Amino acid sequence: MSLQPPSGDSRGIRISDADRERAAQRLHQALAEGRITVAELEERLAAVYAARFGADLVPPLEDLPGDPLDVTGSLPVSSTPAGPPVVLRAGMGGLRRTGVWQVPARLRVHSGMGSVLLDFCDAELPHPVVEVELQLGAGSARLLVPDGATADVDGLVAGMGTVRSKVPATPVPGHPHFRVYGRSGMGSVTVRHRYRFAGITF
Asked: Beta-strand (E) ranges in the chain?
């Protein structure tokens, strides 16, 4: 499939950053549904973020359900706001986010060998849906989500590691939902609620 924009002088009106983000969200949803691969997602996202006109969005979206040019009403109710992701990078010592912290709508985590701990249980979650993109090498990642929260990990591709989610995948109204996707090389990824034992949580 060619991702080149249609030729010609008339390609419609110019699109906004919000339109590009909504189109990107459709691609992430297609990945989670198994319609496209991670490699296809990356290629199509490049075309979406380079788009200037509505017609430029047709090639990366035309073989997916819905009207490729209908970027205004294509998102599910539990969609994340538009905006670039907050990028976190883990060094050799790893990365920890615990306690009270402000969780963005979109989070991208890069880790080569260090471990990652994202504890959302006491965090401020202003968005109903949080996207977490993991790009992991040999390190492992643990995502601790609040009681009642759900998580979809179908978009996370594991190499030699494992992916385990111990929470439901279907969103529940009134509770936060996490979309976890990306790549894991050799480490494991675990999504779960916090454990409680003898008054201690971990």
From this structure: 86-90, 95-97, 106-111, 116-119, 129-136, 141-145, 150-158, 163-165, 177-184, 189-193, 196-197, 200-201
Q: What is the pLDDT of residue 8?
A: 47
Does some domain include residue 27?
yes
**Of the residues 18, 40, 74, the one at which a domain ends:** 74
66 burial (CB, 10 Å; 0-12 / 13-18 / 19+) is: exposed
Q: How far apart are the first and last CA of the chain?
A: 48
- pLDDT-based confidence at 190, cuts 50/70/90? very high
**How many domains is the chain built from?**
2
The number of beta carbons lying within 10 Å of the beta carbon of residue 100 is 7
Q: End of a domain among 20, 52, 74?
A: 74
* 42 & 135 share domain: no
Q: Binning pLDDT at 50, 70 and 90, where does residue 73 land?
A: very low
- pTM for this prediction: 0.62
